[in-house]
Amino acid sequence: MVALTSPDFKRRAARALADTDLQKALRRGGSGFHSKRAQATAALPEFEALRDIGRDIKNHTLANLDHYLEAFEAKVVANGGQVHWSRDAAEARATVLKICREADARTVTKGKSMISEEIGLNDHLEANGITPVETDLGEYILQLVNEPPSHIIAPAFHLNREDWESRFRAAHKDLPADRVFHDRRDIMAEARQTLRERFMQADVGITGANFLIAETGTSVIVTNEGNGDLTQTLPRVHIALASIEKVVPTLEDCSTLLRLLARSATGQDLSVYTTFSTGPRRAPDLDGPEAYHVVLIDNGRSNMIGTDFHEMLRCIRCAACINHCPIYNAAGGHAYGWVYPGPMGSVLTPALVGIEKSANLPNASTFCGRCESVCPVKIPLPKMLRNWREREFERHLTPSTVRRGLGVWAWFARRPALYRAATRLAMGTLVLLGRGTGRFRRLPLAGAWTASRDLPAPEAGGTFMARYAATQRSRR
Questions:
Q1: In terms of pTM, does the model score above 0.70?
Q2: pLDDT in tens, 269-299
Q3: Which pLDDT tens digit goes with each residue over 88-129?
Q4: 6-302 in CATH: which number?
Q5: What GO molecular function annotation could you give as one example from this UniProt entry (predicted)?
Q6: d(CA 230, CA 210)
Q7: Helix, strand or coil for residue 5?
Q8: How far is CA 458 from CA 81, 398, 434, 454, 466, in A?
């Protein structure tokens, strides 16, 4: 599996904040996602109603997940394909390797797939003598330098244009020195020459799946580069990797969710390529694979059903929550230390790998609520982050200083009169100590704050509770 470094979140986040190149990339990329999504959703009057419908489709599917997965399998088999059930990452890797060996594959092309990152597929194939070639441009650039994706729809989000060029030149040493790359399209044109040969050589093509349609046995992928189509139509064998919650009942349900997906992700009405694959090539077909395999992967998801984190399985991987998260846009995706960054990752990662290995992630949130407000299927991400924090506290994973501090606060909070007296004393002391300066450079019990920023000093006495009471009296 992908190396898990989530326990090191704080150090990695601090390093990210000091990385000027990363901060440049994050500033450049974030605002574009915001504005495009806002324009796309404003242009669709029924968008809010579609969010309710999308939520209800996913809720209904999850409540009947066993039925729809079995219906999907039956249709795939009827169409000439095969479905493989994998309980965990190891079974999924073994299944894919077996299919590749049966096809005598030496080269495998891959469309972007986060589930393949989750199960550590590339390393497993390479260790067994099979060369995987990423065909999404961002993934291809990252593969050249052995870096993991930092975003679920824009894998090289953390790189600037000059970073793309330097990585590309380092791997393509035969490029003329005077070859100029003005933007990513120039790099894409150059990469296309290499990837075209790889597409023709590949024995097996592996894609993810945005949706699986139970009604027809179809896997659906959305891309903006066309690499997904070439990955699944040119090789003799197509393998679609999908986690079990990707299934939806009907084509109509899928169409509804597609209307939500692209608008929420990139601000498009639909992605440039939306491809439906239903089984292997049939007699009248001019192209397509000879064999079609779907590898269904659980890897901990069935354990989430019926729990406080059940609603996370509604996620359609649009990344809207990531794009609008102030923590992600400050620290970037690699700080989160596993496959899934941002708010969705801070909920999903503890569910899949355990809160003991990822206790920092639920705390990487301001609880501003922007993630829930932009989620196309209305996942209550802040609520679930709070639930993980509660479990972190219950299992004594919270630092002892934090637990003691909360204990002191709770002792006072259970004694209202004493609490009000203590807060009045604390406020008066802060006003006195901060008079004439307006800020504190150092303050006992607030060292983590003042280590990187000043703490504003209150300009007048009085606690919030006292001011609130006075405001209420003035309105009578």
A1: yes
A2: 999 999 999 999 998 888 899 999 999 999 9
A3: 999 999 999 999 999 999 999 999 899 999 999 999 999 999
A4: 3.40.50.10420
A5: metal ion binding
A6: 17
A7: coil
A8: 68, 30, 7, 13, 14
